[in-house]
Amino acid sequence: MNADAFRHFYDYHFAENRKIWDTHITSLTQAQFTQPVAYSVGSLRNQIVHLMEVDHGWFSQLIGVDPSFLDDSMDDRAAIRAYGDQVEQQMRAYLAGLRDDMLPTKPFAEGEDKDLTLWQVLLHVGNHGTDHRAQILRLLNDMGAKTGPQDYVFYVYDHVI
User: Fold this and answer.
1) Rounded Cα distance, 94 and 30, in Å
2) DSSP assignment letter at 37
3) How many angstroms separate the CA atoms of 90 and 104, rounded?
4) d(CA 94, CA 125)
5) pLDDT tens digits, residue range 13-54?
6) What global pTM score does this model have?
7) DSSP 100-158
8) What gap in Å lies between CA 152 and CA 94, rounded to an integer?
9) Angle, helix 44-63 to helix 77-96, in steps of 10 degrees
């Protein structure tokens, strides 16, 4: 693994997040967006915010700043999208400075994550995003939306090969 591979992987992560937002979330009614769901973290709103906040939380730790999270009652899609755009910018800025020699380092000096290497953290965050996008796609499907795959290989076909 190298830094360029992680930048590429996160380009996929950001593209899939935007695709779900632009293809599905913008066309939902507010009731659909906030409809309670008993699975995982709940509504589509909660799934999306959770994905953004986990991205932001981990990358804020890597940068060494305190994260700022949305109010639990915030359900304004424009404000949530703006927050997500800021999170993506923060992540892209960090990834722009990522070097190969940083990947095997342990970015956290203490706590339960102290033994994690940077490459493990970066894989975890990306994998977490895939998990919650799958949950989001399932919720959208249950609402009658025609969803598609989020497979990494399809991103590669469209963007690399």
Assistant:
1) 34
2) -
3) 22
4) 14
5) 999 999 999 999 999 999 999 999 998 998 999 999 999 999
6) 0.93
7) GGGTTS---SSSTTTT--HHHHHHHHHHHHHHHHHHHHHHHHHTT-------HHHHHHH
8) 22
9) 30
